[in-house]
Amino acid sequence: MSKTTPHDQLRRHLLVAAILAVGLYGLGFWWIEHRRVRHGPWEVEFRPDASAHRLQVTIVQPKLGLGPIELVIPWPPHESMPEAGFFRFDQARSVPFVVPGGRCVFQDLLFLPGTVVLELQGVLIEMLPRCLRVGDQEVPWEPPRRIEVEPTGKERFEGLGGS
Q1: Alpha-carbon distance 27 to 43, whole Å?
Q2: Any alpha helices (H) in the chain, and if so which ranges?
Q3: Which of 9, 46, 69, 155 could form a disulfide bond with 100, CB atoms 3.0-4.6 angstroms apart?
Q4: What is the pTM of this model?
């Protein structure tokens, strides 16, 4: 017959409590991380069109079914065209940072897809799950699928009969 001392019982209780705490912490961390990344990031493709001297930017968020929406940004004739590129906004970086044709001036990627703001040729492009903001206009993630950004900052939305 083995005899357990109060010291052994205390050690066993502390060990069980520590195992439960680590297990609950791991489960909680996994659950929060899953909720944080489950919708996936914004995907942005930059394609220069040298013949028309414009930059085409395609924005899509596949898991939420947002987009694709194409922005067409005229490029000044005296400036060289930017390189083509593709960005997935899934990792936070210090802002501002360079993207083809401009820069990313803000990003909040705590819960994806989050919010991303690009500045391209002086026009702010704000990607939000509820809408896309081009300049000072909100555009729903429904048609128009193509937005031509005018040099004056006014946007022309195909599918809405123009502005």
Answers
A1: 30
A2: 6-37
A3: 46
A4: 0.79
